[in-house]
Amino acid sequence: xxxxxxxxxxxxxxxxxxxxxxxxxxxxxxxxxxxxxxxxxxxxxxxxxxxxxxxxxxxxxxxxxxxxxxxxxxxxxxxxxxxxxxxxxxxxxxxxxxxxxxxxxxxxxxxxxxxxxxx
Length: 119
Prior knowledge:
This protein is an all-alpha fold. It has seven helices and no strands.
């Protein structure tokens, strides 16, 4: 079972949930073509890569959870996420260095915990 601390949950909700969960807040411009196609495509692709709404469910996590945890840290540490195009419009999605370290520390701790032999 993936355990998401409250501080990590707050960061992921603020910076990631619009594209990586079923809790998308669709802004007005997401209903106007052709921008709507761009926005919907980003959300669809984001959910396909990881959807926090379906991934973090007790006892229902996919077998590749450790790989996903590694990818989360790699993407935020490398600046690949959130996307620059998203950050330009959603100022609250920018990740401070402390946010990145919080996410990566959580990711690494969860990887270790999930890799540990069952007691």
